Amino acid sequence: MNKTWCMVFVPGIFAIIAVAVVIMLLVVKLLWAWTIPDLFPGAVQQGLIAGTISWWTAFKVALFVAVFAGLAGGRRSHQE
To answer: CA-CA distance, 37 to 53, in Å (whole number)?
Structure first.
């Protein structure tokens, strides 16, 4: 493998991954702020549920969902 090609390709992959993570966290934050106050208006007003979440909390929620999606996908039968 050509060394200059590798020096361009690897940082490019890392940049794409970083952009994808930021977009994923933005989507989680926006979906939370859009749906939770509508689903649980009384709980948000009383402070029982946060109406908005931080970037760190969005990361934890996304990780939680990804783990459970991975577990659910791993138990699927491949019979047709």
So the answer is: 12
| Helix/strand/coil (H/E/C) assignment for every residue in 13-80 | HHHHHHHHHHHHHHHHHHHHHHHHHHHCHHHHHHCCCCCCCCHHHHHHHHHHHHHHHHHHHHCCCCCC
Q: What one-letter code names the amino acid at 79?
A: Q
Tell how far CA 35 is from the center of its chain.
16
Q: Burial level of 45, CB count in 10 A (0-12/13-18/19+)? A: exposed
**pLDDT tens track for 18-40:** 999 999 999 999 999 999 999 99
What backbone torsions phi and psi does residue 79 show, to the nearest 5 degrees? -85, 140
pTM for the model stands at: 0.72
pLDDT at 76 over 90: no
